[in-house]
Amino acid sequence: MEALRQRARELLAAGTVQAVLGYAAGSEPDRARPCFVRTAAEADGLIWNEHCRQNLATYLQKPEVRALGRLALVARRSTLRALLQLAAENQLADGRVVALFVADDGAVTELPTLAAIEELVARLPRGLSDADRQELDRIAALPLGERQAYWAGEFARCIKCYACRAACPLCYCARCITEANQPQWIPVSSDPLGNLEWNIARAMHLAGRCVDCGSCSDACPEGIRLDLLNHVLAEEARTQFGAEPGYSVRKDYALASFKPDDKQEYIR
After folding, report:
1. Which of 31, 98, 176, 187 could form a disulfide with 72 if both were Cys (CB 3.0 to 4.6 A apart)?
2. Is 262 within the bounds of a domain?
3. What pTM was estimated for this model as a whole?
4. Cβ density class 171-196: b for 16+ within 10 Å, e for less
């Protein structure tokens, strides 16, 4: 933790960045909150522990954050992938963010360019945790009817708070489909059909783009496993089209491109 604070102080004191976006202690011992550090003295409030889970890249598209100038961003593995995916979608310019990747042992690696992020991400472990993989396999093994009932039950708990959208670094549309009312694509109230439409529409918009940060499920007050749903679609995009988001700045969004040799098994 001290290595992170010291590097933040140095970057701010040298004027290399105008702010550091990291984590500070939350309202409860098991919570961390995002914080913007503007001076070297404020760096003492930075923390790093197992509760620092939110993907801070979600703040980068906000006008008030852009106005701060160049940022240093405290990054988890999935945060680095989010930066690469944002760059691939022309939402992040090279050099605008200095990523401060914190390893499990507390060591801090400074990554000032997208090329440096690409190089490190390529060496990091991939895949889900053992517990998440077991749960995903359990759901996948259910008969079709039971699987449908499982997700219907999950979506039935949705209260349409849109915390998942707010927490996701790749939900950056200036106007979401939920805010369109002429026509009204998604019902405002929480009901079975509207909940299904919202969650499926969002999952499809993230298909082949999700970087497995899990911020959507962490933010959900109902504990809906949206991260598992997104991962299922990510695996489909990878196996069907070879698309693996968050590892390159090349634009390779499976649902926005066509190749003559694309598999057609998804057409029934």
Report:
1. 98
2. no
3. 0.91
4. bbeeebebeeeeeeebeeeeeeebbe
